[in-house]
Fold this sequence. Notes:
single chain; four-stranded antiparallel sheet
Amino acid sequence: MRIVVVTPLLLELYGDHEAGLLSRDELLQALRLLEAYVFRRAVCAIPSNSQQKTFATFSRALRREKSHYLPSFKAHLLALPSYRRFPSDEEFRREIQIHNLCKFNKSCSYWLRRLENHQRKEPITVGDYTIEHILPKNPELSSSWQQALGPDWKQIQEEWLHRLGNLTLTGYNPELSDRSFLDKRDDQEGGFRTSPLRLNKGLGQLEQWDADAIRSRYKAETNFVDIVPQAKRLRLSLNMPFADLDDPKGLAKNVTGIGRWGNGDVELGIATMAEVPYAIGLIRQSLERQLDDAPGSQ
């Protein structure tokens, strides 16, 4: 994503990093929060005309002391009101399910790239890949697609075509085109079954593609962890039963039936970068459980 109005704030952050007010890890945390702020607002269709003033005056709220810089940055960003707000996980999850993501072509491509390279130690260069609609865009769907979707095929296509669950990345967009799902899955060169992309891993195991499959894929891709930035830590909610979690250090908390915000029964706090590798191991358990529960994964 390229947002020019944030440049002055970025320069200040890099300058304060050079001056020793922000460590490298703290700088990266601040940049990731800004990235999430801009992307979430785009997905939630919040007008961007306020961002120039937001970023131009942002640094006035910062406490330029080593121990207070990042907490004050987080607190100010998360406290922005009304049309300047940082969309919550709940708002973001709701909006990304219903919006036509292809209206925001750059944001959509960004989201898919981030999903593909999430937690990869050796990121895949996906610049040459393009967005693929698994259920094709052609309003005159082939008879095989109509049969797969049922009598309401046209309504299903209109409703689910541009949803996140129906989108992936491929280097074989022209070859896959409007072909049936099984043809797209089994193509010898560019089919989902032989694709090197993790985004396409589950697709190679499915036998059909309909509204239920699109809905299930969205949940598997997005709903394994909720992250809430707080003043001095990140609060994570893992979407899995507490009893199924392998947590040898005993850092996670059982919130079953407590009614806390977030999905699942597991809550975890991260206060330092040293805690991140262990937390990633717990998050991966939630992701793998979601993928195992997806249709066709057995």
